């Protein structure tokens, strides 16, 4: 497959050094599709680093902030692909990714040969592989690069990217991802980024439930929640859910628990993403999956997954 000088329509032989060709065009336009809670601050960080952005979102109002900062807004993913040969997508689910890439107005309708397509959505690894195969047929390169860190890390450019795809393309992808994250890790072939994210999500889901149970227990035993959180965070029980994303309202500022669990990582999405089809024994993971599914049935589907604390309180009749 031929490589392309990013930002140009001139194709060069595969023998031409990939890294040098892409670094030469480092400030050419970058496409960005999906400007929600995560995509919006990620696109802003690319703008801060001097990259011209060509963006679109299914909800036009989501484009206003980046447009005010200088991004060019277009009507469809296909139009983004027509104007940029490096594109980042950040979408809610596997069906959304399939539509954006292969739909009637999708990226692959107008993608240029040699384009680099980076999907930072958290989706099924098999869908990533399908999109990679479809992109390859069009002469483009697809990489999966899901993230960890949440909205706060997206805003402060401290995300962790787990990247799957052709290793020779990793340097080109890292150039862009490093503008939005503190850690960019190559995991292997397409789909391995998503595999790493599934493992991280499972641990996060289990840890959040444990933190919520612990905080609720402490409150029931008469401890002040802020004091309990302080003690946990200087002790062996410390974890991300306790020190960075505490689920108890009033303990921390700038997290979903302080905003009626709005924004962040939805409970319904968490329930979906920790479901696995492997035969590996995951007793705690399975129990966490059941709890988040129960939450969805009780009206917590659109709330952040840390709302498991509110769910537990409701279960004991305190709300």
Provide structural commentary:
The chain is α/β, with parallel strands linked by helices and 319 residues long. The protein has 2 domains: 160 residues, Rossmann fold, CATH 3.40.50; 121 residues, N-(1-d-carboxylethyl)-l-norvaline Dehydrogenase, domain 2 (Orthogonal Bundle). The chain contains 15 helices and 11 strands. Strand 7, helix 7 and strand 8 form a beta-alpha-beta unit. Helix 10 crosses helix 14, helix 10 crosses helix 15 and helix 13 runs antiparallel to helix 14. The radius of gyration is 21 Å and the shape is globular. Belongs to the HIBADH-related family. 3-hydroxyisobutyrate dehydrogenase subfamily. Keywords: Branched-chain amino acid catabolism, Mitochondrion, NAD, Oxidoreductase, Transit peptide.
Task: Give a concise summary.
The chain is α/β, with parallel strands linked by helices and about 325 residues long.
Average pLDDT number: 91
Q: Pick out the low-confidence regions.
A: 1-25
Largest pleated sheet: 6 strands, parallel
Question: For the largest beta sheet, what order do the strands appear in spatially?
Answer: 5-4-3-6-7-8
- The coarse silhouette is globular
What's the domain count? 2
What's the CATH first level of the largest domain? Alpha Beta
Give me the CATH superfamily of the largest domain. NAD(P)-binding Rossmann-like Domain
How far apart the termini lie comes to 60 Å
- Number of E strands: 11
- Count the helices. How many? 15
Helix content: 40-55%
Coarse structural class: alpha/beta
At CATH level 3, the topology of the largest domain is Rossmann fold
* Helix and strand run: EEHEHEHEHEHHEHEEHEHEHHHHHH
Radius of gyration: 21 Å
């Amino acid at each position: 497959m031929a490589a392309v000088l990013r930002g140009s329509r001139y194709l060069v032989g595969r023998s031409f050094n990939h890294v040098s060709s892409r670094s030469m065009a480092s400030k050419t336009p970058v496409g960005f599709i999906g400007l929600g809670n995560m995509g919006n601050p990620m696109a802003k960080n690319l703008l801060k680093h001097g990259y011209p952005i060509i963006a679109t979102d299914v909800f036009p109002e989501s484009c206003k902030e980046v447009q005010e900062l200088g991004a060019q807004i277009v009507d469809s993913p296909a139009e983004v692909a027509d104007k940029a040969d490096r594109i980042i997508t950040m979408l809610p689910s596997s069906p959304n990714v399939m539509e954006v890439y292969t739909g009637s107005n999708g990226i692959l309708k107008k993608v240029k040969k040699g384009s680099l397509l980076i999907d930072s959505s958290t989706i099924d690894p098999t869908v990533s592989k399908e999109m990679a195969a479809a992109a390859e047929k069009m002469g483009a390169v697809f990489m999966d690069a899901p993230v960890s860190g949440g909205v706060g890390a997206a805003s402060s450019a401290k995300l962790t990217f787990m990247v799957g795809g052709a290793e020779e393309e990793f340097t080109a992808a890292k150039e862009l991802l490093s503008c939005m994250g503190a850690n960019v890790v190559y995991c292997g072939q397409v789909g391995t980024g998503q595999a790493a994210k599934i493992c991280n999500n499972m641990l996060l889901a289990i840890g959040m439930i444990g933190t919520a149970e612990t905080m609720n227990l402490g409150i029931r035993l008469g401890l002040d929640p802020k004091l309990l959180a302080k003690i946990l965070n200087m002790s062996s029980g410390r974890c991300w859910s306790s020190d960075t994303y505490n689920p108890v309202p009033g303990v921390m500022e700038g997290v979903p628990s302080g905003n009626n669990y709005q924004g962040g990582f939805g409970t319904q999405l968490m329930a979906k993403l920790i479901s696995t089809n492997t035969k590996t024994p995951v007793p705690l993971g399975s129990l966490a999956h059941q709890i988040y599914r129960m939450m969805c049935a009780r009206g917590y589907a659109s709330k952040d997954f840390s709302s498991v604390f509110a769910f537990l309180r409701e279960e004991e009749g305190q709300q």
